[in-house]
Give the backbone structure.
Amino acid sequence: MLKHNLGYPRFGIKRQLKKASEKYWSGKIEQDVLFKVAKELRYEHWKIQENYGLDLIPCNDFSFYDHVLDMSFLLGVIPERYDPLWNASKNNIDLYFAMARGYQKDNLDITAMEMTKWFDTNYHYIVPEFIYNQKFEIFCTKIFDEFTEAKQNLSKEPKPVLIGPISYLLLGKEKESNFNRIDLIKNLIPIYIEILLKLKNAGAKWIQLDEPFLIFDLSEKEKKAFIYAYKEIFKQCGELNILLTTYFECIDHNISLLIDLPFKALHIDLIKSSDKLNIFLKNFKNILSLGIIDGRNIWKNNYTKSIKQIKKSIDVLGDERIMIAPNCSLMHIPFDISIENDIPIEIKENIAFAKQKLEELDDLYQIINGNNNLLEKNKKILKNKSNFIHNKLVKQRVSSIKEEDMHRKNPFNIRKKLQDKNLNLPLFPTTTIGSFPQTLELRQIRSKFKKGLLTREEYNKYIENNIIKVIKCQESIGLDVLVHGEFERNDMVEYFSEYLNGFISTKNGWVQSYGSRYVKPPIIYGDVFRTQNITVNWSKFASSNTNKPMKGMLTGPITMLQWSFVRDDQPRSITAQQIALAIRDEVEALEKAGIKIIQIDEPAIREGLPLNKKDWNNYLSWAIKAFKISSCGVKDETQIHTHMCYSEFNDIIDHIVNMDVDVITIETSRSQMKLLKAFKKFKYPNGIGPGVYDIHSTRIPSREEIFSLIKELRLYLPIENIWINPDCGLKTRKWNETIQSLKNMVEAAKLARISII
Ligand code: GLN
Ligand code: ZN
C-alpha cells in the first residue's frame, strides 16, 4: 500500500513567498533572491513529506503565483497582448507575472488575465485564454527543473503533477467566438506527450494528471475528447505510471470513461463520496488511490472510519492495489497547527493542518500494519472533542426556531411607509457600503492594541476620533445615510469571530486566495453563541455624533460560515442557524440602542453554491432561511439592508427576493449591463442600490457619468426604490479618491432629484 500526496501548500509557514514576491515586484530584490526563496521552500516542503514516509512526493505543485497559469506557461499559451514583453529568455518570470498581474511600465499598459474561483474553494486561478486553432509548445522548463531538483534532494520518488489536458482546456475560455476550446485537444495532446516523455527520460516513474472536471456531467464531445486524449497518451507513454486524480466530488457518473483505459492508478475523493467506494472497487482494474484524509477542512481524521474503508478496499483489491492519500491538494488548508500557542490544547489536538494530515496518513499506514495504539489514541482525542463543543441551550434555541421568526411582521410596502416616516430620506438616498479607507497608521494602531502595546482607552479614543472624522467628512459631502467607517475591523469575518463563542482564530493559519493574497479563516469548533454586544457601542457612539441616520453594520451568517473552517460533525445548515441567532441578537441590540438602519453583509452567498446544480435549491433555501433568522427580529420601522459583491444574479434572483430585505446594495460597476439584464426580466420589488461606481479602480467617476447611470436605472426600477451608492466598501481606496468620487456621486443624485422626477 503506497502513501502519497497530491500537493502541498506553497508559500511557506512564514509567508516567505509573499514577502519575496512583493519585494521583487517593487524592485527591492533581484530575481535570483526570489528564486532562492522558492528553492528553499520547495526543499523544506519536500523534506517534511519525506519525513512522514510518503512513497510518492509531488513536485511541480509549487507555483510562484498559480498552478493553472503554470500550465499555460508550460504549454506556451501566452495571449498576444504580451508580445511586447518577450525577450530572448524563454523562462521569463516577468512575462509570467505580467500575465498574472498586468504590466504598467515603459509606456506599456497591458491588462492582466482574468481570474476566477477554483471550483468551490476560496482559491482563484488565472483563466487560460485560447484563440482559434491555438498552438501549443513546450515553452518553459519549470516542470523538468523541479523534477530534477526533487530527484536530487529526495530519497523517495518525486511525482510530477500536471493538470490533465481535458481539465486544462475546460478551465479556460475562448477569446474568439468561432470555435469550441475542447476541439483544441488535437493540437494539445502531442505536446502533453512530449512533456511526459521528457519527464520519463529524466527518470520519472509516476505522473499525476489532475482531471477534476470528471466530477461534472461532460458533454458527448468532451467525453470523446477525453477518450481520445488518454488513448493517445497511453499509446505513446505506456511505460509511465499514470495516476489520474479527481477531487471535490464523486465521479461515479463518469466511470464508464475510465474503466477501459489503462491508468495505473485512479484517485477518488472519499470525503465527498465514501458511499460510492463499492462502485470503484468493483469496476477498477488497476490501483485505486483512496482520498481518505480531508484536505478541505482542518479536523482530525476519524481513524476508525478510515481504517474500515481501507481494510474493505484491501479485502477486495489486495494490499498492492491500494494507495492512500488526502482527497485533494493540501493547499486549501494552513501549514501547521503545532505553532499556534493560544489555542486550548483540547481543541488543538483535534485540529490537523497540512503537516498533521501527513502524520495522519502515516498513522493510518501504521495502524493497517498492526499499530493499535495509534488507533486507541485517536479514539480518545475524538471522544474528548464531544466534551467541549456542545451547548444545550444553543441546540434548544435552534430547534425552537419558529416560522414567524423568519418573517418580518408586514410586507415590504407597509414597512416602507413606516420607514419613510421614521427616516425622512430624500428620493435617491445616498449612502456607502460601510468601510472607509484604512490607512497604514490605522492598521499599525490596531496591531499594537492586539499585542497589548496600547491600552483599551487609548485604542478606543483613536477609533472614536476616526469615527468623528469620517462622520464630518460624510456630512460635508452631503450623504444621506452615514456609516461609522469600520475602523475597528481588520476583516469582516475575523472581527465577529473574535466575539462569538464557538469560533477561534489562528495567528498563522494562512491559506492562499490568489497570488500573494492569503486569508486566515477562523475555525468554528463548537456551538456558536453570543454573550456580549459586538458593534453596539461603536454604532451608538457614531449615531450620537450626527443628526443623520447611522447604519449599523454586521456580517451575515452565510458569509461567516463560508469564510471559516466549519464543523464536520453537523450539517452546515445547522451551524448557519446558530450563527444566525447570534447575529439576530446583535441586530436586536442595535435596534434597542436606537439604530434605525441595520446592514447585514452577505457577499459570500453566491460563492457558497454547491458544484452540482441539483444541490443549489437545497443550499439556497437553508442559506436564505439563516439570513432571515438573523434579520427578521426587528420592528417594521427598522430598515434592514444587505450587501452583495457580485452581479451574476440571474440564476439566483428568486432567492435574493425571498431574503425580503428593505434595501439591497450590490456590486455592478464592472458589469452594469449584466445586472440590468437581470432586472429587465425580473422586477426587483424592494429597495435597491446597484453600485454606481467601481471601488476596485483608482478612477474617479464624473458626476455626468453617474447621472446617466441613474437615468438608466430608472428604466428598470421604480423611482422610489432606487438607492445611490458605490458598489462595495471603500477600505482599499485612498482618502482623496474616496472624497472626490463620493462628492460626484452625491451631486449626481441631486441632479437626478430635480431632473428625473
Ligand atoms: N461592509 C463591508 C465594507 O464596506 C462590506 C465588505 C464586502 O462587501 N466584502 O467593507
Ligand atoms: Zn462588497
User: Anything to note?
Assistant: The longest helix spans residues 456-477.
